[in-house]
Specification:
The protein is built from 10 helices and 7 strands. The chain has about 230 residues and is α/β, with parallel strands linked by helices. The strands form 2 sheets. It has a 5-stranded mixed beta sheet with strand order 3-2-1-4-5. Strands 6-7 form a two-stranded antiparallel ribbon. The radius of gyration is 17 Å and the shape is globular.
Length: about 230
């Protein structure tokens, strides 16, 4: 058997939740305080899928985000893909938390796209910055989107949100079959990933979805090949 290790990563209140898997062994979850720590922990991974935008535009919206939203219309999840802020909006190294920060970044983004950014997107600005300030990113690290992963396995016109119990259960069932790991083991991995105040259940579930994308990747890509979202 070829020795192959892959990883899925999602942001969480405590930093980043990293889930790794070697061959068919059970996945292992670890809470990393910084993205630099994620990079250090995944140097031996063939593929690392991270749920965060990479390759930011100087002007206008990323075509790949538009493509992802269109693709997710079939399961009613297009709103789960946000339009990535332009590069200038995340270049400032100051941590953004205040309402004044939000207004400033909205102004910057509107000057390049004619659109402000939603508050939900603003809450991810610091995470987007943390990843995109690493230059160059290691070649094994890629952007993925968990909702696109789920879309590979469902045909529902209204796939439930991960925030309700039905949505979580549906996702666990997909993971169980795709990763060949029982729901009991998946729940154990989720529960042991870290303190609930630092790691939410849906963060770990999304990171686990990254293992599907890493092990059997599909992709959406801009026509010029600049930005790619794996799933």
């Amino acid at each position: 058997m070829t020795d192959e290790k892959i990883a899925g990563v999602d942001g969480c209140p405590g930093g980043w939740i990293l889930v790794t898997r070697r061959n068919t062994e059970l996945p292992v979850a670890k809470l990393c305080k910084s993205f630099r720590e994620v990079i250090s922990e995944t140097r031996d991974c063939k593929s690392v899928m991270v749920d965060i935008p990479m390759k930011l535009n100087e002007e206008g919206f990323r075509t790949v985000d538009v493509m992802a939203r269109e693709m997710l219309k079939k399961i009613g999840r297009s709103s789960s893909v946000f339009m990535t802020p332009v590069k200038e909006a995340i270049e400032n190294q100051v941590v953004c938390t205040s309402n004044e920060d939000y207004k400033r970044i909205c102004s910057i983004n509107k000057s390049h796209t004619d659109k402000k950014i939603p508050k939900q997107t603003f809450c991810l600005i610091n995470k987007i910055r943390e990843v995109n300030c690493v230059d160059p990113l290691p070649e094994n690290i890629h952007e993925f989107h968990p909702e696109l992963v789920w879309s590979r396995f469902v045909t529902d016109k209204e796939f439930p949100s991960k925030k309700n119990q039905d949505g979580e259960n549906r996702r666990l069932k997909i993971l169980e079959k795709a990763l060949n790991v029982s729901c009991e083991e998946l729940n154990r991995i989720i529960e042991q990933a870290g303190p609930k105040s630092k790691v939410h259940r849906d963060d770990v579930i999304d990171a686990l979805a990254g293992l599907i994308a890493a092990g059997n990747p599909l992709k959406l890509q801009d026509k010029d090949g600049y930005a790619t979202i794996y799933y």
